[in-house]
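Wed. Picked up where I left off yesterday with DEN5A protein. The coffee machine is broken again, so keeping this brief.
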Amino acid sequence: SAPGRFADYFVICGLDTETGLEPDELSGENFEQTPLRRTFKSKVLARYPENVEWNPFDQDAVGMLCMPKGLAFKTQADSREPQFHSFIITREDGSRTFGFSLTFFEEVTSKQICSAMQTLYHMHNAEYDILHAPPTNDKDSCSSTGDCNGTSVSKLQRFNSYDISRDTLYVSKCICLITPMSFMKACKKVLEQLHQAVTSPQPPPLPLESYIYNILYEVPLPPAGRSLKFSGVYGPIICQRPSTSELPLFDFPVKEVFELLGVENVVQLFTCALLEFQILLYSQ
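Structure written out below (tokens, as returned):
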């Protein structure tokens, strides 16, 4: 049986420099996109601990749900703000485990990956030249529009482009907590403080491994009807578990639902739920 720990796994997902750039088959064919707008396959790079008896690690599910859009590449010209999301893994017996993921961007230090991205751009621009070359007998229309093939290609190369001699390449990476209960706010704070410690010029008060060990082995699940306060890298983190006589744990801001759907749609959804209609939510 589970010993009642706050978190079961700490997971790192991202770019495997040994396997290089692999197209993400789950995202479909996207070769018409510029290489910086394509998605590439991410891998589970590390997990701690290796395995726990009461919650076997599902590498494929965790890897896909941590980075559902695969790896993303950007340059210094793009916005690189960290993004947080949560997910649920439901097993065949109906039991659930919860995941909380913080995705951020870090500089690519592998020269092979940078060279591979540059090669993809050379191939992409060559294909563009072939597909959009003007007809040989249409020189007049080219000169009249003032937008010959050379001009359009140069515009394309400047837009969403990558030049290994000029640009800094960044790739998405993810840190994740796998937990038995859905303490979303607490997990988000843990991950954000860990990321802050990695990106801060000043080292954290203690080695990062000690904080990860603490959250995995020393922080217990709070008993029903009790609160729990434990130390993060830069400050305390608090979570509360409802008692058996209260509504179930729901640690997500309902405000976001109203912001995304609007009041009228939320009321309509609530009415449909009361009338036991089937409800399908579709999202990108």
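Quick read: Residues 9-111+164-221 form a domain with the Beta-Lactamase fold (CATH 3.30.450).
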